[in-house]
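Appendix B. Chain record.
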Amino acid sequence: MQKTNGLHTEDLQETIQCTLEYLISKDEEAEETDQHKRVRALIEEPMETEDDRDFTTEEIRQTITSIDHKNAPGEDGITSRILMWTFESFPRLVTLFYNGRLSKGCFPKRWKRT
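Structure tokens predicted for this chain:
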């Protein structure tokens, strides 16, 4: 995987670290506004609706396998094959990752680009 400095990762641990740093960007204090504070306070409260439930590992597997492997990678350079390999190697970790985002109701800005 290509890192932001143009070099490539050398092993699995470095690839995972690079991926996490890209997907979960750090909040910048300069962005903190009253609106951000209100949103942060709201997401700290547990959401309790009838349909609240975690993703299952099988749901995530089905979603990842449904991705067309012929498509080019997105801005992050992660191909669907890399995503599938990561999931097959660490299904519990990937499931916990997505459920963590779901439970917070807060997703990185990079995930919202179209």
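Further analysis of this model is presented in Appendix C.
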